[in-house]
Amino acid sequence: DPEACVHVARLAYAYREAFHKDVVIDMVCYRRHGHNEGDDPSYTQPLMYKRIDARRSVRKLYTETLVKRGDISMDDAEQALDDFQAKLQVALDETRSSAPPAGIVAKEPPAPLGVLPPVATGVDRAVLDRIYDVMSHPPAGFTVHPKLARQFAKRDEMYAGGVVDWALAEALAFGSLLLEGTPMRMSGQDTRRGTFSQRHSVLVDYETGAEWAPLAHLGEDQAKYWIYDSLLSEYAVLGFEYGYSVANPQALVIWEAQFGDFVNGATTIIDEYLVAADDKWAQSSGLVLLLPHGYEGQGADHSTGRIERFLTMCAEDNIQLANASTSAQYFHLLRRQMRRAVHKPLVVFSPKSLLRAKAAQSPVAELTTGSFAEVLDDPRYAGTDRAGVRRVLVCSGKVAHELMAERDKRGVDVAVVRVEQLYPWPGEQVEALIDGYPGVTEVRWVQEEPENMGAWSFVRSRLSDVRDRGLTFDHVSRAESGSPATGSHAIHVQEQDQLIARALD
Asked: What's residue 127's pLDDT?
């Protein structure tokens, strides 16, 4: 009944226009030629398709109805059909005329973008102070939760001392982009508070329940700021945010998994769109994924963002993978996403314990100048004699801080190089840092993940050329495993201690 379909569609649209509520249309249909119009549906539905074959098409039935009612004549119907067929023929002829030449045409690999020149992403201290002033002064009469009030007092001391932690660096990055006219949208499970109670982007009045989002009140000259706690569906929410990022490329759009492991609920969106849409349809997206990642004894489902899965899908500079290890690096990474010409999805393996760790804190001065660094050298050997270093440990993320802490405790000459961007792989920079240690004889890749997970399979071929220079090359990881992590905290501690010891021994 075509007219009923049109009537219901118009009714639904009018309802949406009037009441701004969703409508579900339940339309019962059938496929005359089966699933793909090339198979034979009667193999599995013989009785149904006997009835369908005996039924005249909707076009013919509706044409007869219009003629009987006197709405059109038979000549009109035939003319409409001829017009439609002619349009189809024109479209087919145009398609055939633009067909590629016969034979096999090899796909030419694109010129690799590699590591692009750095983009200055520093922000004037006055702007940072303006953002922090709004964050630290709730509206008159607003009662902050007593526990939060104590936390904010410590935050005031930290910022006054010229230091920022992870959450504050993130807020300052968001605020600076908003003041520069970049709209920002963020969603995820517990995103407003932060899964680890670190963000507190929306405060709730302890007495009245009223809400206040500081970054939405920086000034009349700022861009729009939206942040939502989403429903418990990674697939649905990431699908929506991906579409939003395509439709509004001027906005910083972020989806945060409650834990990095939970991204597996959205693998369809990742496989079909995030990593492949540029190649399939030349459709670009700047969507940012925040995936809490790190082995801290929280069990198999709260440890990893599945770095290995993303790395297997990396090609043609389709996405960016980062595992920043300091607050300043995270600040510049977020700002770089909106301040350079390349528009690619960004996957950030974000920390858990480093959210509050002093080792990951940064001076405010590092936010006012500079840019995101794809690789970080060992600060212990900055401006010092490196001749005594025989072993260089290359790693990414939290484990670097643990390695440096144990190294300093033991007093051994081992350098720790941090790869902050895993893809596009900053090969030349990694090689340059290794070459900066003239006495090195051994290079080891160190990761917290099991050997069959993490970045090892990806980096082994990219680092193996150190053998050509006569250097010993090996890796340190957990043993191969079918599960990402142990469920026992005691065993986790033993594994982590053994991992660090094997890297340094």
From this structure: 97
Q: Which segments of 309-454 are extended strands (E)?
A: 320-322, 346-348, 362-363, 375-376, 391-395, 414-419, 421-423, 442-450
Q: Residues 14, 18, 22, 24: is their CA dihedral positive or negative?
A: negative
What is the three-class DSSP state of 395? strand
* Strand-pair partners of 415: 392
Closest CA relative to residue 195, chosen from 275, 294, 332, 270? 294
Quick one: pLDDT at residue 8?
Answer: 97
Structure tokens at 105: 């045409």
Task: Output the pLDDT for position 158.
Answer: 97
pLDDT score for 113: 53
Strands 375-376 and 414-419: antiparallel
Could you report the average pLDDT of every consecutive run of 10 residues in the chain (505 residues)? Answer: 95 97 92 79 90 92 94 94 95 88 58 70 97 96 94 96 97 98 96 92 94 95 95 94 96 94 92 94 94 91 93 94 97 96 93 93 97 96 89 96 95 95 94 92 95 94 82 92 92 94 93
Query: The sheet that has 346-348: what strands, in order across it?
Result: 225-229, 184-188, 252-256, 288-290, 346-348, 320-322, 421-423
The neighbouring-strand residues paired with 164 are 362
Cα end-to-end span (Å), the chain:
78
- Residue 92's SS3 state is helix
* CA–CA distance, 401 with 354 (Å, rounded to integer): 9
Residue 319's CB is within 10 A of a number of other CB atoms, namely 24
pLDDT of residue 41: 87
Question: What integer pLDDT is reported at residue 403 of this predicted model?
Answer: 96
- DSSP secondary structure letters along 212-278: E-GGG-S-TTSPPEEEEEPPS-HHHHHHHHHHHHHH-TTSEEEEE-SSGGGGGGGHHHIIIIITTHH
Cis peptide upstream of residue 112 (ω within 30 degrees of 0): no
Pair 263, 234: CB distance under 8 Å:
yes
Residue 443: strand pairing partners: 392, 473
Tokens of 62: 């509706």
Q: What is the dihedral of CA 102, 107, 111, 114, to 10 degrees?
A: 170
